Amino acid sequence: MKIYFSGSVHNKGVDLDLYRKIVEELRREGHKVQAGHILNVPMEIVENKELGFRKDYYKKLIQRIEAADAMVCETSYPSTINIGHEITLALDRGKPILALYLPEREPRTLLGIESEKFTLMEYTEETIREILSYWLEEARNFLESRFTMILTSKIKTYLNEIAKSGTSRSDYIRNLILKDMKKERK
């Protein structure tokens, strides 16, 4: 499985060893992990405010998320708005996501996300292997049932409006199907 890893670049001074351990465990499980943009990027690149650079960086970010099968992120508070945005992008694209946090560093905003593809779990260095192993098995189940649907631009625009209200496009379509399935059972 291709996994997109994210964590706070600004917290690297504190959490870099944890990031490396998570990525190492994912690779040990046999997965290809995209993590260089977090582990290896110097702060002067992160702090570059030149508009052309920022646009290119954002385009690459989206490409990395789209190319991945799943996302794992370290979200221990205090985190950044960037990770939350990346989670939203990944959810909007139907990716299963594991958001990890350390005890006493719970990312409160993420508690409000309601999606079967989003898992928020507390971890320690001692439990990370077990948690990742369990979640990776769950993520495989989502990947096995994924399919592609071609939509008209009118439908896509409508679904994008639905997504702005807090319900992902996938969840909205899935709920419509479940509603019809319940009607048929009666």
Report on the structure:
By secondary structure, the chain is α/β, with parallel strands linked by helices. It folds into 2 domains: 2-144, Rossmann fold (3-Layer(aba) Sandwich), CATH 3.40.50.450; 153-185, no CATH class. It contains 8 helices and 5 strands. It has helices at 12-28, 36-39, 43-46, 51-67, 81-92, 128-144, 153-164, 169-185; strands at residues 2-6, 32-34, 70-74, 97-101, 118-122. It has a 5-stranded parallel sheet with strand order 2-1-3-4-5, with helices on both faces. Helix 1 (12-28) crosses helix 6 (128-144). The protein is globular. The model has no long low-confidence stretch (mean pLDDT 87).
In short:
Helices cover 54% and strands 12% of the residues.
Average pLDDT, to the nearest integer? 87
Number of helices: 8
- Going by CATH, the architecture of the largest domain would be 3-Layer(aba) Sandwich
Strand content: 5-15%
How would you describe this structure in keywords?
about 190 residues, alpha/beta, Rossmann fold, 2 domains, 5-stranded parallel beta sheet, 8 helices, about 10% strand, globular
Please give the structural blueprint.
Layout: E1 2-6, H1 12-28, E2 32-34, H2 36-39, H3 43-46, H4 51-67, E3 70-74, H5 81-92, E4 97-101, E5 118-122, H6 128-144, H7 153-164, H8 169-185
Parallel strand pairs: 1-2, 1-3, 3-4, 4-5
